[in-house]
User: What shape does this take?
Amino acid sequence: MPAPRPLLRPIQRLDRPFRDPKAVAMQAHSTTRRWRIGVFLPAILATLGLLAAFTQWFAINGFSWFEGVVVGLMAFTFFWISLSVTTAVAGVVAMRHPRPCATTQGLVKPLDVALLMPIYNEVTSDVFGNAAAMIAALKIEKSAHTFTLFVLSDTRDDLTAKRELEAFQTLWASFPNKVFYRRRVENTDYKVGNLTEWVERYGGAYPAMLVLDADSLMSGAAIVELADAMGSDPGAGLVQSFPRLIGAQTLFGRMLQFASRIHGAAPAEGLARWTDREGNYWGHNAIIRTEAFASCAGLPRLPSRRGPSHLILSHDFVEAAFLRRAGWSVRFLPHIQGSYEEAPATLIDFVLRDRRWCQGNLQHLRLLGIRSFHPVSRLHLLCGIISYLTSPAWLMLLLVWALFGDGKNTNAVHYFSGYDPQVSWPEINVGNGLAILGFVYTMLLAPKIIGAVMAPRTGIQMRDVGGAPQFVLSVVTEIILSVAYAPILMVQQSISVARRTIGISETWTPQQRGGGKYSVAVMTKFHLFETVIGTLLVAGIVLGLVTLWLSPIAASLCLAIPLSALSGMNLNAHSWSAKQLGTPEQLAPPDIIRCAMAERHRFATTLSTSQPIAAE
Assistant: This one.
């Protein structure tokens, strides 16, 4: 490691505002208010319209408190769906009227940028292969900035640590004084503590730090563009890129990868417009003004009524909120190309990661009332919370429709007990049933359709996604898969919320980036709850006690175990499936991805043939 250059990092107070005297006040874009009105007002009006329509429909034969609760749940879930649709529509408008780039080489202040790659028991060859590719790309990139890469290890396994040290020595031989490596003795406070230790010890030497994840990969041009954005904006405390998913080989990973690449562009552009300088931070592939981060974003611990205080999880949202309240802007630039990360390979891997995110996001309930946070920063926290609370809301609606059906003929509660708390429940005939089902699925799928239609506008060439027929097939396949997996994820997120509600904490374990291999017994145990729900729904439909309109959801839940097994199918194993759900980064990979794959192979070969390093 280089010589220390300490930087003070005071712990922030939650009960009082803080303004950084070094923060440069920058005016929001003149159209930001109009963008916010254009996104939120239609979503609010649509929700009020649905609320009025269902209230009137339920009130045909009288309106009970029970029906009021159901309508309230509908409105709660529908608003966030509407907001996603209006954000995507705003993104379409934004792509048709792009803002001119404000950065020119003459206006950019040169920066010494530290690339920070925190790792924890990762596949050594993958980490250092990506690192080598990024340093090599920066070496040939023309830039006024200087870049130094730090691999910050929290690895607990001694054999993996020895491999890391050997890989670092190999990397140092190619790029002396451009890469450094440090392994902590204790991984206090996990990733937060890992980055904190570097900031407090070495942050004074680097005006900017670009935080990466263990699976992050960025092109030289993307890194330079982020540095330019910060160097040209003295008020920017953080600039976030929009990472695209790469490297997926399994069916589930490829589904996530395709959805992010094709359907994510329009919502990202819309989000960037209405958030403006009150953006969010997703924990990686973002550049941060080091001194601002140290002085304004020191995370306090949350007090507990019982036992020790708690570390703030999902720390990135809170750090962005701290920066914004101190006067620094947080920007999101989705137009930057060449920012990548990897996706969970299987359904179970995704759920295990999602449980940790759920724990962190629900913890933010305790932070919503902080008055010193900017309203948009508070909204980011709320959106993270609601993203998990909507699943229990959807599940409750599902159970209500399953138990009480569309009248006495399909009312399971009335059939078994004779009790009917909502005798005025309206009947769902074929006409209004199709209307409700069509309306819900239209709203859910609208962002996907918008993304597919706008794909050429984002620079995607049909030849890079296998041709137009293959692209259409991939779009249809992704929609079918997302519809199939959505009910399972709804139940699993509800389980995550329930686990957190009763006090079960998730452990911080290394991610299975290549995908875990799960036996039938493990998958059966993991998906038992949704399988039971699905089986009961199917039985109720067969007996005529559950409305037929729940058949798609019932089938998905009933088939949770085989769908989980299918999620790990390797699409690259067969020629007929290799192009399915293909993205340009997979079918026509840019230089940085090809270089990273070659470097990964080189490091894997070197580590497999080398002599073990003696322990010191």
